[in-house]
Amino acid sequence: MKYDSELNLEDRNSLSILISRIKPNSTVLEFGPANGRMTKYMKEQLNCKVFAVEIDEESGKDAKPYTEKIVIDSIENYSWQSEFKDIKFDYIIFADVLEHLYYPEKVLKSVRDFLK
């Protein structure tokens, strides 16, 4: 798997900084969870309800047990909008994702209404 690595919370890195800002018992929309290393932590350690969108089917299967629901599709196909239309999120996470999108500004505008 391309992004299958351990979650390192000891060192200061992009994921440890993101995790430090998530409050326990939050509802989170995570774009690009890969194999779910951060997803698992949010579910098991922070008791969060995590919903996710992952483009890679194999990675998505690994992340699925740690989510309430996962959509396997490109973010820029926007199928997640109908799947999560009735949910308001405390946090929306794009960890190492935006730089891979064709139109990141369009995606960011589209998620605004999903925040609490």
Characterize the structure shown:
With 116 residues, the protein is an alpha/beta fold. It is 31% helix and 16% strand. The chain has five helices and four strands, in the order αβαβαβαβα. A four-stranded parallel β-sheet has the order 3-2-1-4. It is globular, with a radius of gyration of 13 Å. The mean pLDDT is 92.
Layout: helices, strands, pairs:
Blueprint: H1 14-21, E1 27-31, H2 37-44, E2 49-54, H3 57-63, E3 69-72, H4 79-83, E4 91-94, H5 104-111
Parallel strand pairs: 1-2, 1-4, 2-3
Spell out the key features of this protein.
single chain; 116 residues; alpha/beta; 4-stranded parallel beta sheet; 5 helices
Summarize the model shown:
By secondary structure, this protein is of the alpha/beta class.
Low-pLDDT segments: none
Strand order of the largest sheet: 3-2-1-4
- What is the succession of H and E elements? HEHEHEHEH
Global mean pLDDT: 92
Task: Determine the strand fraction and express it as a percent band.
Answer: 15-25%
Q: Please state the structural category.
A: alpha/beta
How can the largest sheet be summarized?
A: 4 strands, parallel
Residues in helix, %: 25-40%
CA-based shape? globular
Q: Please state the CA-atom Rg, rounded to the nearest Å.
A: 13 Å
Helix count, DSSP H or I runs of 4 or more residues = 5
Number of strands: 4
Give the N-to-C terminal Cα separation: 33 Å
